[in-house]
């Protein structure tokens, strides 16, 4: 391992010695600065918003209550009939006329439907 370490860093030390004081810092930051900036931009553009979305989704799942209209990942519109804190499943009523109910995982619920979306789904036959 020491041989690899020396093979990688000895040319850098030699070049830094030619440049004088502060050369190694300048040598390492010079070509490394664009990569550092790309890493920071990737974090700000991809990872941070995704973490924020996950936190909002978790908050939505905690606030899920009876009679909320929801949409599942499969595109099923339903009304929450039974939800208990600490459990993974939720019971949805998907047909009011026949009282058809299904159990789904909390993670399959993609969003809570607002008033406008719910009335449009009812008009189209849901």
Strand percent estimate? 15-25%
Global mean pLDDT: 80
In what order do the strands lie side by side in the largest sheet? 4-3-2-1-5
Summing up helix and strand content along with how strands pair, one would put the structural category as alpha+beta
Q: Which word captures the global form?
A: rod-shaped
Question: Taking Cα atoms only, what radius of gyration do you get, to the nearest Å?
Answer: 28 Å
Total count of strands: 5
Q: Report the helical percentage.
A: 40-55%
- The tally of domains stands at 2
Biggest pleated sheet: 5 strands, antiparallel
- Element string (H = helix, E = strand): HHEEEEEH
Oligomerization status of the protein chains: single chain
The helix count comes to 3
Low-confidence stretches: none
- Separation of the first and last Cα atoms: 66 Å
